[in-house]
Amino acid sequence: MIKVLVVDDSPLIRALLTEVLQLADDIQVIGTAEDPFDAREKIKTLSPDVLTLDIEMPKMDGISFLKNLMRLRPMPVVMISTLTQQGAPATLESLELGAIDFIAKPTKNVAQELRDYADILHDKIRAAASARVRPFLPLKENKHAKIANPEAVKFKVNHLSVIGASTGGTEAIKEVLTRLPAHFPPVVITQHIPPVFSTSFAERMDRTSAMTVKEPKDGEIISAGTVYIAPGDHHLSIKAKGNDLVCYLSQSEPVNRHRPAVDVLFDSVAKLGLKSLTACILTGMGADGAKGLLKLKEAGAKTFVQDEKSCVVYGMPKAAFDLGAASKQIPLEQVADILMRLAIKR
Q1: Domain 2-130 has CATH 3.40.640.10
Q2: 94, 122, 159, 192: which one is catalytic?
Q3: Active site includes 192?
């Protein structure tokens, strides 16, 4: 059984989360707490496997509590967030501090929507229970880099890199993008993330990366020096238009229960017949992207996945590797270097 402690200042939300969590046979809510001080004592006495944590609470906000928790007693945490523009930066900060994942607060008590919500929450709790907990560590110099001066390197003109990620992916993507030079060929990313949060995430990456990072508009032409991140609740696919590669957005049915889905991006790119293409899957829950990565490999792309040791959740990379879609598993700290090496003009 996965033992969960629910922390939220709202009695209604505590009761609702408890009810939803206990619909799963393998999850047990062993207690609830109304604020971080109450939570601190119950963590000591109950020893939960996973904590659900509200961001906005009295006495001490969830971010401050998370900082202390990850410093003194690191454990798996799933943030319960409000899906608003104001709440997005704090939620992304919580992932940076070591929270495994986040989910919106339940807002509707409609039977079908509550069942869907329960399935997603259960999956996130299970992933958190088996995840690798990492306290926040500032980005360090990459001692494993093989390219001494990437800013001076000449890259292929028509090269494309595509990346898929889910749980733990926001920080993994940050690790990769902050190591790529401003003139690197275009990168297209599908990360499982809701709307509003994807916008905030792209803006955050743009501030910390030498490359321009953005959410593409429908019909936008891809250009070098730019990273395109799929907007939340929209599939992102790439198609050829004349001599250009163009981004297309769609709200068609979820694929592998996701929108955006990694397989949608990978499938579209596999059809392009590109001569210089690199694709990888980073940390994430489930198997989205595995079949698409195999299609890319069969189409001639250089493919690899993040290795188990450096993943927060070794789900998507494992599914792809087991399928034979990638011949190599790479530590996260070496991913940017591999991407650059495969894009260098020979």
Answers
A1: no
A2: 192
A3: yes
